[in-house]
Amino acid sequence: MTMTLMIRLADTSAALERLLRVIRVRGFYLEHCQVSQHEDAGYEVRVTLSGQRCMRNLQRQIDKLHEVSAVLAVSDGRELAAVSGSLEGIAETGSPA
Amino acid sequence: MAQPVQTQAIAETGAQAILKVLDEQGVDRVFGYPGGCIMPLYDALLESDIEHVLCRHEQGCALAADGYARASGRLGVAIATSGPGATNLVTGVANAMMDSVPMLVITGQVPSAAIGTDAFQETDVLGLSLGITKHSYLVTDPDDIPRVMNEAIDLAKSGRPGPVWVDVSKDALLAPTNHPDTNSLWEPSISPARTEWRPSVARARLLMGAARRPLVYGGGGVSLARAEWAYRRFLEITGLPCVETLKGIGNAGRDYPWQLGMLGMHGSRAANTAVDEADLIICIGARFDDRATGKASAFASKAKIIHIDIDPSELHKVKQADIAIAGPMTDILVELAMPLDIAPWRGRCVTLKHQCGFTAQPHGEHHISGPALLRQLDATLPRDAVVTCDVGQHQMWVAQHMRFRQPRDHLSSGGLGTMGYGLPAALGAQFARPESTVINVSGDGSFLMNVQELATLRRYELPVKILLLDNRYLGLVRQQQCLFYGERFSECALDDNPDFAQVARSFGLAARRLSAPSDITMALDWLLAQKGPALLHVIIPGEQCVWPMVPPGAANTAMLEGQP
To answer: Considering just the CA atoms, what is the radius of gyration of chain B in Å?
Structure first.
């Protein structure tokens, strides 16, 4: 199973390392990573990941990072699901795996 | 984040700025150990009102700060120097991370110009910290110190608490700061709006009303959220039977009639059976940890699940919840509480409790049984006593056979399972609660891992009592080798242990040795009557096991009651 995430990251020491560590420890393989500076300062990171575990859980783990202000799951440039900035999608019956 | 407001420069160093923020944030005690790169902070401490506790190893500092935080509900602060000072902290910080303990860690780093040159006592502390902290910082500009310190303290205490590590280069500690007003830079965390979780609570009430065999599975998150009162009120109104995790022990108090004790690997058959029979599990501040669930797919297989936690990333992580509620526990429990018509199920749980609760193997004619001894200790201790454990058989016996008034009276290393936790945690707890009796129940393996903290007890005349159960083995290792490795005992014998009473006396503690069951009452009375720190060295059999036990990876229903 593969998935692409767009992540907005603050420009702080070790922010990128912290993000990549979470991806590795939570059991995902980094297929592709592209980092670009964002116009509002900070970085926009686009990662393509593969793994057998629940991607939605990984999104929540990434969203916990202090430097992360947005996490979007995308496919062909289309936004699929966002967890960042609110608890929307979490406090629901049977959140999707 | 609020916009900074530039104010007139204040002539203070980075080190002084750290202490000023600590003072403003209500920190009045820190646990630390000095060294080269943190010396500017120790120099500034001489003019500070903050009390510093000198431990004898940095791991002791971090674990003492952990014990202080757990016993009091306040922030624990640990300080060390760069390089080995920082690396020695790592186990204690990881321990706090796994058990969500609010902790601030401050270390000195080599001067900023030397970072990355493999300088003397240089270690990449920020890199080390990534996997064991909630967040971490490397500060090289003194003007960043007030903002970072305030932010770090807020992060450590807010939401799901955890350790936050601030590594500061020596030049930043020494240099004058020209910082903006700290308050303008600090925006405290806010709880999720009520509207975000309220609809889920309404659906959860429907599930609760329809359930015939609902069960509460409560964890350490209850006390972390300071929701003890709301939790007990919830139990009182609903009359729900409950089971507890290791860290949730004490949530329901000592006398709640439908409390079935700890669940999981060394939980009671009553608790594990109730989970298996339940048609609804209400998980409150717990995380379906593998020691609690056993084989996760078989855990509560007949039940729907309501999961309440402040951390959204814990929801659906191990078990898919039917209703997941992320938000402030007290508010949620108040709204969730309603009387339930489940009298037959309560009756079933009472029967389970009486028929399949924990049983303590009695003392032999000539040997002391660990579980029976701890039951006697439980009956002897004052009600406000704090018990800290190390890790091993004694830890499980405490969890099984002692009852606690509240979770902050039982300090145990749950997630990381840190041998050597108990003694430094006890000294931290004694500082936090000077009026309480604090007792460290330890084992012979664990005790030697931080034995140097006996010197700290003596230095501060802390009246911590140590009950050391000595079976001359790494008992849980031996037990697993006996049960699951064909009795091939590998490196678990500790038959060359020192004379622990003599060791304690050499540090200035009162100490005695106990080996006869007939002397137990007298020995426990002696221990608790000592005005200063004291140790009771208890000889127990090497072959005694912790029962029941679920084999690793098996379902909780497959628990063993004795050697097959």
So the answer is: 24
